[in-house]
Automatic annotation (TrEMBL):
Originating species: Streptococcus pseudoporcinus LQ 940-04
Keyword Transferase found: yes
SUPFAM superfamilies assigned to the protein according to its UniProt record, in alphabetical order: P-loop containing nucleoside triphosphate hydrolases
PROSITE patterns: THYMIDYLATE_KINASE (PS01331)
Lineage of the organism: Bacteria, Bacillati, Bacillota, Bacilli, Lactobacillales
Protein name: Thymidylate kinase
This enzyme's EC code(s): 2.7.4.9
GO MF term (any one): ATP binding
EC top class, as a word: transferase
Binding site for ATP: 11-18
Stored InterPro entries: P-loop_NTPase, Thymidylate_kin-like_dom, Thymidylate_kin_CS, Thymidylate_kinase
GO BP annotations, alphabetical order: dTDP biosynthetic process; dTTP biosynthetic process; dUDP biosynthetic process
HAMAP family: Thymidylate_kinase
Similarity remark: Belongs to the thymidylate kinase family.
């Protein structure tokens, strides 16, 4: 049994997860007096980062949805055993930008792959590890994609190039997950200002972890 706490951050593209996590770290360090580990999926360790480059490369438009899913799952496994589980065993609080729910939302709802198959692959890759808490940052795909277009520092990846319909399906997938797992997933209004979203996320974590 892990000693630490695993908190995941989910949401459509442009929801601001990364910025929120950056704002939360100093608040959580003061609250818990414990080391905070911030990481991301796909990525977080060298092998998984290499897989990330393949997945998100704008040149890889021929990638089959099942290939995409399996690459995400492979990156997840390596990241988990190499970085996440050791940190949890040391009693640290781990914040992951995307985790198991992203596969259900993007490859399940977005790509139309079998939700049952995705859940099995997630369980296989994680040995059943689930977050203690998941914050889902909700906003419309129109707002999210507009934010991406305005952020000149953010590199456009292969998923950003998908049609608006796919991004709407992803959001619907997340909303369904939030209904399915209300004890784990808490929805945050990501349309508010960054300071407001950080404050709301901090209160949720204080109450639930």
């Amino acid at each position: 049994m892990s000693k630490g706490r695993l908190i995941t951050f989910e949401g459509p593209d442009g929801a601001g997860k990364t910025s929120v996590i950056e704002g939360l770290v100093p608040l959580l360090e003061n609250l818990n007096q414990t080391e905070i580990v911030v990481t991301r999926e796909p990525g977080g360790v060298s092998i998984a980062e290499s897989i990330r480059e393949v997945i998100l490369d704008v040149r890889n438009t021929a990638m089959d949805p099942k290939t995409e899913l399996l690459l995400y799952i492979a990156a997840r496994r390596q990241h988990l055993v190499e970085k996440v589980l050791p940190a949890l065993e040391q009693g640290q609080m781990v914040l992951i930008d995307r985790f198991i729910d992203s596969s259900v939302a993007y490859q399940g709802a977005g790509r139309g792959l079998s939700k049952k198959a995705i859940q099995w692959l997630n369980d296989f890759a994680t040995d059943g590890v689930t977050p203690d808490l998941t914050l889902y940052f909700d906003l419309s795909p129109e707002i999210g994609l507009a934010r991406i277009a305005k952020n000149k520092k953010r590199e456009i990846n292969r998923l950003d190039m998908e049609k608006i319909e796919m991004h709407q399906q992803v959001r619907n997938g997340y909303l369904e997950l939030a209904k399915e797992f209300p004890d784990r997933i808490v929805t945050v209004d990501a349309t508010k200002s960054l300071d407001e979203v950080v404050a709301q996320a901090f209160e949720i974590i204080k109450e639930n972890v």
